[in-house]
């Protein structure tokens, strides 16, 4: 209990004093996770919508694989990305290992199936409602997908937020591909792991509270921007 | 007999069961044709076949004027209005947006169509907040946005109160007067009497009787139609 109290106190102190280290790792955390969420959303949302409106022989298999990939072990993803981008790996020439870009790539791999899968569920339900109307109005395949993405934007935002939640709290993969290098690839989660390893539980908890606060703030911010609670208006 | 659409040997089978046909019919009425028959008679399926929402297993649908065959020159109002997650105005404007009309222009026309069908609510509110009758008027306004030559209505007044039914019927009279052909299914005998220029009576997926509205109600020719009009249960 004492540690939790101390952690809360330290978190408040770090935030109020705008501790330079905290600002730096928080900014990098946001940059990496929001970047990964943006890229994964660009891939996952249309993919989910496409899977919802198209019928092809291996569709069920693809959906099953997508759902299974939601549980991808981050450490394994980190390891694969590490091997790919290591000096002797096939993409080693790009020199991305231990950079924020590699961290974004690893997170994109982890969260794209989550976003695509949640989006698929949401769009599938909407497609069931809209099917006859869109066919009746002779909407093209592209128009159908655009309509479903637009009208399902609230549910899709939830899909993206689910991806962001997973990304911002992820530690295994980014620890491996980022290396937790001070002033280079250290983010909130890897810093928490480091502080815990050092036995600095108060600091680890403080960073943990900042992380939770950040996740809540981003969610609230997006809900506010998209005005999800506008009563009788869409 | 030449009409605006002919069906020859049309059959629709789903999950091993024939739900329509074999059906041969020619629709030649220029006004409002009512599809009647008990549940499972094939009324909805026939409307969906004509509108291209349902594929036929055998047979042909032949449109005399190729312009009528184009789905864009047809409108369809479903029994349960499809409510898009948009404002009432945007729901009505949607068909024109698909046609590449600008949003401002489409909304302007949608406002005019809403007024045409007597939809006097706040058009910027979510469509889900409308009453049953208002939702059906919204669906009608949306179906009319492309100025269809043919309008299909699948029991548009089911679950509506008397006042809403009367309003919808008045709108249908105006649409018919504007030269649009209407093909509508209904279970409501009173409504069929009030509206029908022609009647198609279906039973068990087959066309049992086709005649002028007055003749059908005054002197039905088939035993099934007679029994149905008497209120007997057809099996």
Keywords, separated by commas or semicolons:
heterodimer, A: 234 residues, mainly alpha, 10 helices, globular, B: 235 residues, Rossmann fold, 6-stranded mixed beta sheet, 3-stranded antiparallel beta sheet, 9 helices, 37% helix
List strands and helices in order, with pairings.
The complex is a heterodimer of chains A (234) and B (235).
Chain A: H1 2-16, H2 20-53, H3 59-69, H4 74-85, H5 100-136, H6 141-151, H7 153-168, H8 172-178, H9 188-198, H10 201-226
Chain B: E1 5-14, E2 17-27, E3 32-36, H1 43-51, E4 58-63, H2 66-69, E5 74-77, H3 88-98, H4 103-116, H5 132-144, E6 150-154, H6 162-177, E7 181-185, H7 189-195, E8 198-203, E9 206-212, H8 213-218, H9 223-229
Annotation, overall tally of beta strands of chain A: 0
CATH homologous superfamily designation of the domain at 5-82 and 153-229 in chain B = P-loop containing nucleotide triphosphate hydrolases
Strand content of chain B: 25-35%
Helicity of chain B, as a percent range? 25-40%
Taken from the alpha-carbon principal axes, the silhouette of chain A is: globular
> How far do the termini of chain B sit from each other?
31 Å
Q: Which segments of chain A are poorly predicted (pLDDT under 50) over 5 or more consecutive residues? A: none
Briefly, what CATH class of the domain at 5-82 and 153-229 in chain B? Alpha Beta
| Multimerization status | heterodimer
Mean pLDDT of chain A: 90
Biggest sheet of chain A, open or closed, and with what strands and sense? none
SS elements, strand count of chain B: 9
Gross CATH architecture of chain A: Orthogonal Bundle
The value of Rg of chain A in angstroms is: 20 Å
Q: Would you tell me the overall average pLDDT of chain B? A: 92
User: Based on helices, strands and strand pairing, what is the structural class of chain A?
Assistant: mainly alpha
Overall shape of chain B:
globular
């Amino acid at each position: 209990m004492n540690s939790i109290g101390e952690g809360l106190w330290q978190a408040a102190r770090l935030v109020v004093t705008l501790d330079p280290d905290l600002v730096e790792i928080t900014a990098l955390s946001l940059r990496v996770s929001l970047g990964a969420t943006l890229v994964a959303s660009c891939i996952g949302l249309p993919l989910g919508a496409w899977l919802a409106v198209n019928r092809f022989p291996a569709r069920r298999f693809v959906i099953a694989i997508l759902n299974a990939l939601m549980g991808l072990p981050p450490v394994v993803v980190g390891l694969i990305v590490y091997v790919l981008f290591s000096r002797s790996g096939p993409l080693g020439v790009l020199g991305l290992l231990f950079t924020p870009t590699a961290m974004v790539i690893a997170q994109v791999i982890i969260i794209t199936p989550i976003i695509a899968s949640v989006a698929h569920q949401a769009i599938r339900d909407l497609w069931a409602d809209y099917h006859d109307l869109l066919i009746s109005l002779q909407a093209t395949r592209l128009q159908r997908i655009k309509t479903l993405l637009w009208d399902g934007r609230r549910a899709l935002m939830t899909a993206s937020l689910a991806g962001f939640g997973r990304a911002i709290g992820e530690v295994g993969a980014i620890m491996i591909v980022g290396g937790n290098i001070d002033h280079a690839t250290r983010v909130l989660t890897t810093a928490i792991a480091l502080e815990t390893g050092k036995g600095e539980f108060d600091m680890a908890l403080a960073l943990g509270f900042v992380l939770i606060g950040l996740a809540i703030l981003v969610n609230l911010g997006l809900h506010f921007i998209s005005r999800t609670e506008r009563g009788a208006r869409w | 007999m030449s009409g605006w659409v002919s069906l020859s040997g049309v059959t629709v089978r789903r999950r091993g069961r024939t739900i329509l046909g074999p059906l041969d019919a020619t629709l030649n009425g220029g006004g409002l044709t009512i599809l009647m028959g008990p549940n499972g008679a094939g009324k909805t399926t026939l409307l969906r076949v004509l509108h291209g929402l349902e594929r036929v297993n055998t047979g042909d649908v032949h449109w005399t004027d190729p312009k009528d065959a184009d789905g864009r020159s047809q409108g369809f109002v479903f029994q349960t209005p499809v409510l898009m997650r948009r404002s009432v105005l945007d729901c009505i404007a949607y068909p024109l947006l698909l046609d590449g009309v600008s949003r401002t222009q489409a909304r302007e026309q949608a406002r005019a169509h809403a007024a045409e069908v007597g939809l006097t609510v706040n058009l910027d509110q979510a469509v889900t907040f409308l009453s049953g009758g208002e939702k059906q008027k919204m669906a009608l306004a949306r179906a009319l946005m492309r100025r269809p030559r043919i309008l299909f209505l699948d029991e548009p007044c089911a679950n509506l109160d008397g006042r809403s039914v009367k309003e919808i019927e008045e709108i249908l009279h105006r649409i018919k007067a504007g030269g649009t052909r209407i093909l509508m299914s209904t279970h409501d005998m009173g409504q069929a009497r009030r509206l029908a220029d022609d009647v198609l009576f279906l039973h068990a997926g087959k066309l049992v009787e086709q005649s002028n509205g007055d003749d059908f109600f005054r002197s039905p020719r088939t035993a099934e139609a007679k029994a149905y009009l008497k209120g007997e249960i057809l099996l």
